[in-house]
Amino acid sequence: MIKDALYSIGLSGFYFDDQRAIKAGAKEDGFAYRGIPLTSGYESVRQKGESISVILILDDDQIAFGDCAAIQYSGAGGREPLFKAKELVKDLENVVFPFLFQEKWESFRFICQKLETLSINGRKLHTALRYGVSQAILDAFSKYYKKTMTEIIRDEYLLNFDIKKIPIFAQSGDERYINVDKMILKRVDVLPHALINNVETKLGWRGEKLIEYLGWLKERVKILGDENYHPIFHIDVYGTIGIAFQYNIDEIVEYMEKLEKICYPYKLRIEGPVDMESKELQIDFLSKIKRKLKERGINVDIVADEWCNSLDDIKDFIKAEAVDMIQIKTPVLGSIHNSIEAVLYCKENNIGAYLGGSCNETDRSAQVSVHIALATQADQILAKPGMGVDEGLMIVYNEMMRTLKILKKKGLNVIDA
């Protein structure tokens, strides 16, 4: 099926940031940070993001490709160490490419499952490599069978959902005011992320800065939106609520109740209210928060991110009834078949499936994520890469709308394309 394999080293859509150093108080200096890195592998608190494009030449000279990329906060929350492209291309040349040439190209899913088992000196391939190579594999099947990647996934997993547009979630980065205006003007479905990753400067030691921000956000939606625009408010707090309220569950729940009232009538989701530095502790604490919210009739959704790094982790969070929604962080899960199966597992268990990822991905990985979301009918997808809103939103929205039109033309059951 393939006759050649190449790679090129490129840039990603954002930067690698040492989350531990930022939480510890690294100071912003223009767009950089001043401070000493605290996470292994980092040379500075913020450094350029990297990617590797994996390029497959098919027997008929068609070209398939995918991009290896890693998340902004690499090395945090139990995740893989910093992705260094020049070091990892050796694994492509010595292990991955020989594997691809030896394989019988009969099933996208089967090849991806075998890709996950490859090891080098007892260690698995970096998740970023598995992520990018699996994208290229999916694209190769798409090119060979002359179908969209959405169709390949649906065929492989025997999916027959009606197909409709997936709500898009945009992230503001630190420009949490100007970028909100962009989101409202473009009628983004879910917003603004807001990057609340520091207690002192962004949340407030009693949560007062986030309270003020959410009040502003609601008014801004009313001013720039219209009566038919009802976005969901989704805020990622990176564990800062736990820090500010010293992990007192009653105080955390009371604070969330205040946030719910401020946001009404808009739905509120809080991602990562605490970061307990281990999966077991994270599940236990989030479960307690969720139960307390339910007991008090507080309608705030809890979204898992940190310590939810694999398909097995996602299953553990769901079985413990710890959350209302899971961020399926695509680069962290490695081969994309894991992200596909994670969305399907969430849907089977009535848990929100947020096909996320990172601002530090690429245009290509974002496009492939759109096909995963459409095929599995995820509940929302991240606008990525980058933190400028417009670029990532354009990439995800346009790929989605193109694909919906193509699928409708082919006679699939597409709703409102």
Automatic annotation (TrEMBL):
Catalytic activity: (2S,3S)-3-methyl-L-aspartate = mesaconate + NH4(+)
Assembly behavior: Homodimer.
Pathway linked to the protein: Amino-acid degradation; L-glutamate degradation via mesaconate pathway; acetate and pyruvate from L-glutamate: step 2/4
The protein, known as: methylaspartate ammonia-lyase
Keyword set, alphabetical order: Lyase, Magnesium, Metal-binding
NCBIfam families linked to this entry: B_methylAsp_ase
Binding site for (2S,3S)-3-methyl-L-aspartate: 171, 327
Methylaspartate ammonia-lyase C-terminal domain location: 163-408
Site (Transition state stabilizer): 193
